[in-house]
Write a structure and sequence with these properties.
The chain is of the alpha+beta class. The protein has two domains: 93 residues; 152 residues, Reverse transcriptase/Diguanylate cyclase domain (Alpha-Beta Plaits), CATH 3.30.70.270. It has eight helices and five strands. A five-stranded mixed sheet has the order 2-3-1-4-5, with helices on both faces. Strand 4, helix 8 and strand 5 form a beta-alpha-beta unit. Helix 2 runs antiparallel to helix 3. It starts with 11 loop residues before the first helix and ends with a strand.
């Protein structure tokens, strides 16, 4: 992400420091030379004016050369400090980015978490309003997951959650948003997607999951692991984030109530 140059409201010194922090290496070298010349002038000129009659020309030349090299060293040290500051700032930015990534991802499945899901859903709704397009939402729940956990333990259940998350990543578009909504429930945000397209995707996911060789599936009903899915679309089914989630969730629970391993579309 590019940074903007400080403008109004910033002092000249702040603007100069910003330019130094973002300057290339060779620009910093030129800056050090110019600064050394400036420091030399500041040191030598007052001497030549104040002691014009008392300082011999050779001493003045020697003083000028000495002042130039001293000021050049000072300027070079300043350049090194600026480069070190830039390096520290880069490390800090990388650490902050890492912390942010951890804060928006689910630690177990490595998909987005519920907090980010709501933030992103709100963004997609606003984008859909601006562009006059649709955004679809799929709520997905693993059937009989509590039974699976009780029989095989939480480690086996955690593996299934990770496998489901990976399966979803491999079977949706790159710009679709996958989140773990909570427990064994996942959510998919499908930008610029109508309800019919979302329903086709949901049906493909349902069939594909039931054919996956998850561990211990023989103990599940019908000898396979299944999912139920509920679908809603904005603006057809809702006008706000909370209403959107509620409608999709109701469709999901209808799918589970109708025997599970089903896709239910809101309003149908």
């Amino acid at each position: 992400m590019s940074k903007k140059m400080p403008g109004k409201g910033y002092t000249m010194l702040e603007q100069i420091l910003y330019r130094l922090k973002t300057a290339t290496f060779w620009r910093l070298i030129w800056f050090s030379v110019i600064l050394s010349e400036l420091l030399t002038a500041i040191i030598v000129l007052p001497m030549s004016i104040l002691f014009r009659d008392g300082i011999a020309a050779d001493y003045l030349i020697t003083g000028s050369v000495a002042a130039f090299f001293v000021s050049l060293i000072v300027a070079f040290i300043l350049v090194l400090l600026i480069k070190e500051l830039r390096k520290d700032e880069k490390i800090l930015n990388e650490q902050n980015q890492r912390i942010y990534e951890l804060s928006i991802h689910d630690y177990l499945t490595e998909v987005f978490n519920c907090r980010y899901f709501y933030e992103r859903l709100e963004e997609e709704i606003k984008r859909a309003v601006r562009n006059k397009t649709s955004v679809s939402l799929i709520m997905l729940d693993i059937d009989y997951f509590k039974q699976y956990n009780d029989i095989h333990g939480h480690q086996a259940g955690d593996r299934v959650l990770r496998d489901i998350a990976l399966f979803l990543k491999q079977n949706v578009r790159e710009h679709d948003v996958i989140a773990r909504y909570g427990g064994e429930e996942f959510s998919l945000i499908l930008p610029e997607t109508g309800k019919r397209v979302a329903a086709d995707l949901a049906e493909r996911l349902r069939i594909a999951v039931s054919n996956q060789p998850f561990p211990f599936v023989e103990t599940q009903p019908d000898g396979k692991l299944t999912i139920s899915l509920g679908i809603a679309a904005f603006p057809d089914d809702a006008q706000s984030v909370n209403e959107f989630v509620k409608v999709a969730d109701c469709a999901l629970y209808k799918a589970k109530g109708n025997g599970k391993d089903k896709v239910v579309i809101a309003g149908e």
